[in-house]
Write a structure and sequence with these properties.
By secondary structure, the protein is of the alpha/beta class. It has two domains: 123 residues, Aspartate Aminotransferase, domain 1, CATH 3.90.1150.10; 237 residues, Aspartate Aminotransferase, domain 2, CATH 3.40.640.10. It has a seven-stranded mixed sheet, with helices on both faces. Strands 1-2-3-13 form a four-stranded mixed sheet. Helix 8 links the parallel strand 7 and strand 8. The longest helix has 16 residues. This is Acetylornithine aminotransferase. Its cofactor is pyridoxal 5'-phosphate.
């Protein structure tokens, strides 16, 4: 049976990985500066991660959410302690799209309204409401287009105010650092005023931290650079270091009712073991501090390369913008220099999303290859 052909594939077949490196079937070593879309947060095959998953699956890998699962409580408490999101409640699911889908559904339940405001170049997932709030018509099917979504420009505060005052908006959803869209950010004033406008208009403010969360920005969450209080925070990617897990953090002003949200696989024992291992490593190895150090080092070198026209993003969620499309540069880095990097909807942007425990030697290796590839 052939695979449904929806992915354009590079001719690389990874068979193993360790730390910041991936190895193919010929044992060729690749430096991984993309982490499978910002998923690999603590490095491939981290020993504490492997041990936690191995021990858990040997005991109990899965049972339903109809029974007690102390690992969920342990994960929630650890997440509260490290993130600083005191008194929020946690709902666990399996992916970023599912996290945003549940965030939007919960906002509609809470406000009894149905329209969503999202932003140009935003990406929130491929499920029904999440994809409708994504600024990419090519992936929105007619069944998704039935959702009531208004896409506005980042930083257009007057447009947000006008739409919210119509009284039918249940949620404003925003990435504080856009991922797929190209690492654009709004101003502090915009984020902070939108937060206030939401609270004045019975609208929930949703922080999509699926890609920017878990320390990648240099803070646990990217919204923490601003004076805002999201009603819901969506998380996934780096949360499980490759194991499928997602969730939403829910402000205590929103009250739970039996049955309003649900999932079969979300928060299973194996997922929680993976999630706890990630948080423990982030804490014990001071990875958020490392993000700040390595980001500063990366930017300092990037600023010396004349072909780089702009450096975007924060922490280890970095974009290098050129005055040409980077698809051929990415291929050259993969095939000639054995380095994985990422692209974006901005075709001139090279995205860098490495493991959070990457070191200066890895950064040097990348820039040596980049300079050589640009000269070629």
């Amino acid at each position: 049976m052939p695979l449904f052909n929806v992915y354009p594939l590079y001719n690389v077949t990874p068979v193993s990985a360790k730390g910041a490196y991936v190895y193919d079937e010929n044992n060729t070593e690749y430096l991984d500066l993309y982490g499978g879309h910002a998923v690999i947060s603590i490095g491939h095959a981290h020993p504490r991660y492997v041990e936690a998953i191995t021990n858990q699956v040997s005991k109990l890998g899965f049972y339903s959410n109809a029974i007690q699962n102390p690992l969920q409580v342990e994960l929630a408490n650890k997440l509260e302690a490290l993130s600083g999101c005191k008194d929020y409640e946690l709902f666990l699911c399996n992916s970023g799209a599912e996290a945003n889908e549940n965030a939007l559904k919960l906002a509609s339940f809470q406000t009894n309204k149905s329209r969503v405001i999202a932003f140009k170049n935003g990406f929130h997932g491929r499920t029904s409401a999440a994809v409708a709030a994504t600024d990419n018509k090519a992936i929105i099917a007619p069944i998704n287009a039935q959702q009531k979504v208004t896409i506005l420009d980042l930083n257009d505060l007057e447009a947000v105010k006008t739409e919210l005052e119509k009284g039918d908006v249940c949620a404003v959803i925003v990435e504080f650092i856009q991922g797929v869209g190209g690492l654009d950010q709004a101003t502090a004033n915009f984020f902070e005023q939108v937060d206030l406008l939401c609270k004045a208009n019975n609208t929930l403010f949703i922080a999509d931290e699926v890609q920017s969360g878990y320390g990648r920005s240099g803070k646990f969450f990217a919204f923490q650079y601003y004076n805002v209080t999201p009603d819901i925070i969506s998380i996934a990617k780096g949360m499980g270091n490759g194991f499928p897990i997602g969730g939403i953090l829910i402000h205590p002003n929103i009250k739970a009712k039996f049955g309003m949200l649900g999932t079969t696989f979300g928060g299973n024992h194996l997922a929680c073991a993976a999630g706890l291992a990630v948080l423990n490593v982030i804490e014990d190895e001071f990875l958020i501090d490392n993000v700040k150090v390595i980001s500063e080092y990366f930017i300092k070198i990037a600023e010396t390369i004349p072909q780089i026209k702009q450096i975007k993003g924060k922490g280890l969620m970095i974009g290098l913008e050129f005055d040409f499309e980077v698809s051929e540069l990415r291929k050259k880095l993969i095939y000639d220099h054995h380095i994985f990097t990422g692209g974006a909807s901005n075709k001139k942007l090279l995205r860098i999303l490495p493991p959070l425990n990457i070191n200066k030697g890895h950064i040097n290796q990348f820039f040596e290859a980049l300079v050589e590839a640009l000269d070629e």
